[in-house]
Amino acid sequence: MAPTNTTGALRRYGTAAGTGALAAFVLVAVGGCPAYVGWAGTHTDPNSAGGWYLRVLAWPAWRFDAADQAGGVLAADLRAILLVIFAAALLYLLPAGQAARVPGGLSQFFSGWAAYVLAGGLAGLVAVVLGPEPSMLGALQTAGKGGSYGLLTGWVVGTASLGGRA
C-alpha cells in the first residue's frame, strides 16, 4: 500500500498529468492564437523543415471571431477546446507510473507524449463529426493531421510530465 501522506519535495510539484495538461493548454493557447497562426502563415516557408514545423504548431487554431464560419465561435474553436480536454483526460487515464515495468521518468515522458498524440487525433475526428459540415472523409483527414500534430509536438507535454508524481 502506498503512503497517502506526502511530505517535503512531493508537495512542491504537481502531478504528471496536471503539469502535462498545463503544457497542452499552453501549446494550444500560444500555437493556436490568431497572431501566431497569421504570422506562421505569412512569414514561414512551407518548403523548409523549420517553416513547416512552425506551421504544424498552428494546427489547433482558434479565433475570437468566427463570423465567416457556420456554427459561430464554438464550431471554429471546437478542435482547440477538445484537444485540451482530451489531453487532460488521457493524461489522467494513462497510468504510466503504475503500469510501467521500469517505473520512472521515461515512462512518464512517453505516456505524456502518447496522450497528446491520441488527443490530437481524437480532437480532429470529433471536431469534424460535431462541426457544422460533418463528413467521414473530413473527419479521417483531420484526425490524421491531429495525430501528426500530436506526434511532432507531444514531446513538450511528455517533458512537462517528467518529475511530477504519478
Automatic annotation (TrEMBL):
Species of origin: Micromonospora globbae
Q: Which residues cross the membrane?
A: 21-39, 78-97, 109-130
**What name does this protein carry?**
DUF998 domain-containing protein
Keyword Transmembrane helix attributed:
yes
Question: Which of UniProt's keywords are assigned here?
Answer: Membrane, Transmembrane, Transmembrane helix
